[in-house]
Task: structure prediction
Amino acid sequence: AREFGARGVHGVSRAVEEVGGGEDAREDVDVVAGESCFAAVEGGAFVGLMLDQRARGKTVVAPFFGRPANCERSIAVLVRRLKRPVLFAACYRTATPYRYKAVFDTVIEPEEISRSSPEEIAARLNVEMERLIRRAPEQYFWLHDRYRKAPPAGDAGASRVLHS
Result:
């Protein structure tokens, strides 16, 4: 775990640099989407994804805190196509105002999920995200309703992932 101050996007790039992203990390912080994610990773960049957004468009259903939730299908597709490790990270407030502890702990290797369906990948990602949230649930600000339009728990469409 590493502590750092609140400095916006450039503060995050400095933290990445300190952890080992290299001094060029400051210049590489950018917002990319779609095909540009592939080009960024192929070029040696890191790609960060926010997994707790409400999914729209093509979605998959996977459990989130024991309830079926709509999840982004594109994340599972990216993970399988890029064949790169997935690193889970979270930032927790410390007792000092405007200071945070960055935690980078779980790594999912590409071989672990290469044969998994998008639903299974979403379920695995949700398990890891739940674990990070449970460390300090009072600090989790949940803006997006991931359960909106999700099937009920007993729905056959959700049962394959929920009960596996």
Observations:
- The helical segments are 8-21, 25-28, 35-42, 73-82, 110-113, 118-135, 156-162.
- The chain has seven helices and five strands.
- The mean pLDDT is 75.
